[in-house]
Amino acid sequence: xxxxSVVQQLKSIVxxxxxxxxxxxxxxxxxxxxxxxxxxxxxxIYPETTEQVSEIMRIASQYVIPVVTRGSGSNLCGGTTPVSxxxxxxxxxxxxxxxxxxxxxxxxxxxxxxxGEFITHVEELGLFYPPDPSSMKISTIGGNIAECSxxxxxxxxxxxxxxxxxxxxxxxxxxxxKTGGKLTKDVAGYDLTKLLxxxxxxxxxxxxxxxxxxxxxKTKKTMVAMYKDIYGAARTVSSIIKQQxxxxxxxxxxxxxxxxxxxxxxxxxxxxxxxxxxxxxxxxPEVVERDMASIYHICEQEQADRIEMAQTREQAEQLLTARxxxxxxxxRLRPTTILEDATVPRSxxxxxxxxxxxxxxxxxxxxxxxxxxxxxxxxxxxxxxxxDQEEVHRVEExxxxxxxxxxxxxxxxxxxxxxxxxxxxxxxxxVGTAGIEIMKxxxxxxxxxxxxxxxxxxxxxxxxxxxIQHG
Amino acid sequence: xxxxSVVQQLKSIVxxxxxxxxxxxxxxxxxxxxxxxxxxxxxxIYPETTEQVSEIMRIASQYVIPVVTRGSGSNLCGGTTPVSxxxxxxxxxxxxxxxxxxxxxxxxxxxxxxxGEFITHVEELGLFYPPDPSSMKISTIGGNIAECSxxxxxxxxxxxxxxxxxxxxxxxxxxxxKTGGKLTKDVAGYDLTKLLxxxxxxxxxxxxxxxxxxxxxKTKKTMVAMYKDIYGAARTVSSIIKQQxxxxxxxxxxxxxxxxxxxxxxxxxxxxxxxxxxxxxxxxPEVVERDMASIYHICEQEQADRIEMAQTREQAEQLLTARxxxxxxxxRLRPTTILEDATVPRSxxxxxxxxxxxxxxxxxxxxxxxxxxxxxxxxxxxxxxxxDQEEVHRVEExxxxxxxxxxxxxxxxxxxxxxxxxxxxxxxxxVGTAGIEIMKxxxxxxxxxxxxxxxxxxxxxxxxxxxIQHG
Lengths: 471, 471
Prior knowledge:
The structure is a homodimer. Helix content of chain A is 36%, strand content 20%. The first copy, chain A, has helices spanning 4-14, 23-28, 50-63, 115-124, 141-147, 154-157, 192-196, 230-242, 255-265, 285-301, 313-324, 326-331, 349-363, 389-408, 427-446; strands at 19-20, 43-45, 67-70, 87-90, 97-101, 106-109, 127-128, 164-170, 176-180, 205-212, 214-215, 219-227, 249-254, 275-283, 306-309, 336-339, 366-372, 377-384. Chains A and B meet through strand 9, helix 7, strand 11, helix 8 and helix 10 of A and strand 9, helix 7, strand 11, helix 8 and helix 10 of B.
């Protein structure tokens, strides 16, 4: 509960209409894209300027009130669930594209800009912003920065952090920090820009970002290769990279995913295949032609059962849209869908998919796997029912073992969703006690009172490690 | 002075031969590539393994002894000068390329590997490691990581930080931290990998790095365009980018540099030109041809006086070698050479060069400017004489004004050399008091006793800002 004086002070910063404590607003901001997590905030505030954010943080600091910054709340790690109450700060009013600088190939944007709209806007100018999380139709650039979002183009183009050149960010104290600039080279002190990207709203509130743009690829082509043996699909991924072709997109769907996606999208995916790959290359026409011909040949060599080249852009979009719909399609099966993002070196993709299947079987749970084969970022997705605590417990145990397996294969617990509250009990598995201590030290340097998104990233207790049976 | 017990303990870690306190060793490690800076260490140690580094750091921690990690000492910011005494830890024995992973396109290396040798090695395997600081023939990968080195290919390919995927690093306490992995996507907690890159040996000692490799470009072509008007050269840079061509290299040399480089390299550079651009594109043959034709056309449009395409690879190498020799060539002129790296958005290159010339004139000092026009990273280089204190003072004042001008144009005080001791008094100008405080907090989180490369990056006193005359 916020006291009346705080309420009045916050209202005087943003105006009565933009600080809400009505139940409707509180409930609407009590959850995000993450299943089985809900917590009511004490208030919801909608700032319009960096100065307002700064004033809000001064009040929050003075009264030690938790502040959870939120874009569209599409994250899957509980990152924007206000588990400690306090204020949810919604960035939707700060949604301007401030500048597209054609000489420096940069965009300066506010955090509330919708990613998909931004991408469309820069593409109309002949430019390209590669990070394309599946949520991009609703997610915001600010949210993408908080989570360091990836997407389907990560292999060739990298993720959000590769496109953030500078930030304006408000510290918990209310001070305004400016990092980087329209510069590809800047080594003035520690790289606070890259540190803030992926810091999940725990260090500062980003109020403006300078983003790097690249020339828009002149053309792209898309194919789908279908395999009766998942190792054939995995070998294809490795062979493509080994031949030094870096496709723009290289997605894998396992059999379980193929079934549900086709039920949903009805585009005639082959239900008898163990895996399919969706492969896209973009760039200069000759190079795309040559790469796709080489990839076709590799797919044949690795015993793809069928290979189909999209004949039109519409056909290609249909394929990619089907892939992007995997989460939605799976979500139709049962009441609760848990989408994870265990990530391994790309050479370990097949091992990881098969290991995941074995773990699912062991715990008698339904897990379909799809994801970004080219960069090793898989999405094992469990369909379950939150009301069945016993089953949910088995799902959680299965995921713990999946994370352990990913780490054992040289991977990580999260490739692009973030730690938030969901992965916090596992973070130490990846970064060790030394890593946790350093990260806590960094958190304290930015936020000594622990008011920004508290109780995220660092768990009260690390989950006990699963004993993996090797071999 | 190290006490006898410490000396014995350090010797027992690395063996008698690898811990030295003789004058020869101390003097040889009392300076680096930075002019006018020298300070004797108390000892020089040469570890061979991560475990040894860990044990050394435990001793250093216990006795609160400064440790300065050093590769080849080619840095230009005083980064490896042991200004607080203590131990210089030389990483040359840890010089193995541990693995090249052709499936994941990664290299795992120790920090003492020489950058140029590493580049040659991976190119022989058909792969490519783009960061190419001019010092690469002697600099080490570890040093490049410490400074986040750039080079001539930064515009198209980025800098060292874009190629570091994972690190093994020893904390001041002796604990071993592992970050990242063979992963392009990893958001498990704060990005400590990118934070350590460019941290100038102040946070941890890097003992192993996983580097990203990319396919080697199939071909490259090089041209030189010469201008009687430096704005023509600058407009060319802008026009190239505006037409969405991103060349591999886009270097500028001003008239003063042209003169000395040609005196040195004798390749017939045009001494009457105000500026030349050296432009290189690499990639697929058709694309390189097309880009170079477009660039040629742009150079013509922007009134280049002469444009020459290198006819052979040797001719091209000669041009690039001449460019890389600019520092050496300038160093022949007078006893002391101060090479800086003020960096601006690429659209401000011409303004910055002209501003630099005006400042040099104002302070009556000799400053030649060359550098990476494509990414705005300029190298204004003063030739002076350390024995003439009055002149050196004028040079310092001129550089202070150059840094101020760079910041006023949206740039930074250092694009690729680092802060070290030389830029420390100016760091606050770029990052503000809030930035300095946060960085100090990060330093304290890693190194609470301040033993790793102490008295670097953070100055006792920030230099008073110069009043810039605008207009």
